Amino acid sequence: MKHLFLIAAFAACSSSHKEAPAPAPTPTPSSVRPERSAEGAESKGAPVDASAVAVATPDNTAPAAPTPPAKPEGADFTAEAKLLYRVAACGNDDPLPATIDAKVVDRHCKWVREREEKFRKQYFEGGREFFDKIVPPDAPKVVVYPFGGGDLISALVAFPDATEITTISLELAGDPRRIDTIDKHHLEDSLGALRVQIGGMLSVGSNTSENLSASQKNDLPGQVSSFLMGLAAGGYEPVGMRFFTIQPDGTLHYLEQNEIDTIETDAKARAKKRKGDWESPNFSEAFANVEIRYHKIGEDQIRVHRHIGWNLGDKYLADHGELITHLAAKGKVTMLVKGASYLLWRGDFSTIRDYMLANLAWMLSDSTGIPPYYAKKGHMVQETYGRYDGAFLEGTEEHNTKHSDDFRALWRSQPYRKLPFRFGYVDMNKQAHLVVTKPAP
Q1: How confident is the model at residue 168, as a pLDDT?
Q2: For the residues of 44-72, what is the DSSP string, one character each?
């Protein structure tokens, strides 16, 4: 989807199963620390009657070995996630394998870290007070971000305590395995292309459709690399990565290695672009949808980010409705929409818009979110921040005068509320703006 324009410097099976929430970290024995819930809070429990506790007598019987945790379904790409986190996202200074040229990585990381640090100060630190003030404490910690191409970083800025984030866009996640075999020449070219293709994300948290589309041709997985940069900038790190498909009933199926191998040898199963004018991916359809498990550095709680490569237009969803079934099963969620090319203003995106209106508990968006006409019909109220005088993209006003007029009227009807930074599209006069949409009381 069309995201923010860039500044000139960026030019730029085994079986299916029900989706499970992010697991709690494996508890240590109670002799070491109290048992913790999934949220990390101590579980006090009822007091123990000491007289009812049997006392074991010493013997020569070795204690039973603890039951190992069940192996997660699906082929494990954790090693690739961690190497990409080091090489593409510059998330740490871990030693590099001999196959990776350190000088190439150092040059890349100097560029990335300068921008990550600037973004961190402006948004993760500078924006914290603003987001803490407007996001209600009872907002669901499950976040759905339609049209969120490569943009995990914005969801982490607005909702740092989210336990599950789902981004959806035309772009497919990408094949992470090439980082294991890439040579110096291709590494340098791929990292250079990556800086152009996702550089805008590290300046304003968004990117252009052209760059997002081009990233599907990179030897490095553009979307996965972008997500890992978001984790690095926010002080998180990956602890697991798997790829999945969505079953007709909306449940997730994690791909085993033999399934990936089969997909890659089947010419009919090649990755398909999700929109006619998009670049065709240069990797297998097996790597369309990714799950990255991560945690805040220094904390135990495991969180989940899933990216789903999908076309959200009505025509595509009519033939691929399993996405909506999957999303609806989450119940009421927090939502984010920004830089979405005003697609939610259009009649041919009614299916995803109807899903959003039926399931949002609280939503933050720029003017590419749900227009007032549909929000009112869906029994929603909207609250404005910053200023809005008209749509940013050329041609939008001519084809959607009503929705832009309604947004202008919405802003005029409310007191001015300060927005200290740009977060999403600016308006036609380059003014930052945001709108909160929530169910009417």
Answers
A1: 97
A2: --PPP-GGGSPPPPP-SPPPPPPPPPPPP
